[in-house]
Amino acid sequence: MPADVHAQNACIDSLDGPCLAKMRSLYTNTSAFWFGTRYATDCPPGKVSPLCRNTTPSLKSLLSRIMGEGATDSSGLGFVPNVTYHITLPTDGSDRKYNGCGRIVQVPLTRPQDFVIDPLANSIYPPYDLREEPEVTWPAEENALYTVMMFDPNPFYMHALYVNVPGGRLQNGDTILPYSGPGNPLDRNNPYVWLVFKQKRSLDPSQVPNSRRPVHVQDLVSQLALSTRSYGISVILTSTDEYTAAFIRSVNFLNRCPVYYGQWFSSYIQKKSGLPSLPERLDLSVSVDVTFTAPSITYKSCGMLYDRSPVNVTVDYRNMDLLRSVETRISPQVKFVPLDIGDKFPSDKQYTLMMLDLTPELGKTNQNSIIHWMVVNIPGADITSGDEVYDWQMPMASSLNHLYLFAFFEQEEHISNASARTYIGSNCPSFIESRCSFRAGDFIRDNNLTLLGLRHLRVMPDTYQQYMSYAVAKISTMEEACWGRTETAEKCPTA
Q1: Among 126, 224, 258, 491, which is disulfide-ready with 241 (CB 3.0 to 4.6 Å)?
Q2: Closest Cα partner for 162 from 183, 181, 179, 139?
């Protein structure tokens, strides 16, 4: 909201009088929110951006977005509901946390557990703090029934809908659409509104529309014959957060997870004193989803026979688990997911995918990665049609701290396999022949590659890695690889 619509004290003590007058002014203000008069400046014709998605740019005020185009009379706004949110804390006393975009996000409490929404204050709330249904109260008429809704006037999305609510408190009515907290997906402040309408009669819940989108409040008001002589509105301004990004990705709407993944990974790398092959700031726009599939396998390691079930595991924004080496033994299928999940990558563009072990150069100044996989000249991000420079070599992690990364780039021009192979160091051990001391940074810069996406692969050593290390790769002897294993240890004398 611009500063001229703020009246921070008007609603802080009382929701009547001055508060109501300021709310009516806000309700009709055509410059109060992003979809108002400044939209034409921020989003001129021809500008393509998620921030410019506005299906009805002619609706510039909250009033017009709620009561329809041409609505100018705000006198029906008769009261401001009291909206109180409660934050539930972990019972064990730990900080709040949730599953974000491929990581656990810690969220220390920064506001009171119970907080009342002041619709005119300069308060911006993250969706995570608004995920639980609030307490909503209003001045009610005796024996009256009410319809209560929470509504996003941007995509015309209904976040909650209740009918036949008696008295002045949100309880004991019929739930048509259960509460789903704000899900602002973009880096701009967006208003959400709580609306309370008096009913003229009891409503049959089975006859009430239960669609969330698109919903036009003025049509719903007409269909349910709700009173507009005196209805209530409260406004909540929200930002966006990683909680929203993970949820929005889960319903295949938008994919902003790369933004948060890049921020987290930038911080992680800097805490480790940096990587010479990657930029300090990782501005990502594409998710790299990696799926490993493999049939069942039986193998003998360190004197023991093992049977492993078939593998089908996807490493994406939901997966934060460690993979065992045996699960990564066959090259994966890779899917690239842009911001607009349904969009296709341009067929006239080419891309590069690399899987690197960057552990040797973490915190160092020299480029010194190990290349496990490289595919170049991928047309339209169809990896099966690219040119494979290095075939898949499974991770051979001897510890949990290996930094395996899938990195996805946009190319400017064609890359030859021979040229790509010139960035390898000499004197590689036999098990990583022509793959060690790879100068990934030089390769990226020389070929003008633009980093689009990353995926961190976390692999733990297992019995299959032990078997591979001594029986196939010849990294170690069986005695070295199996040291400490009871089935291979020399038996103590019994006499």
Answers
A1: 126
A2: 179
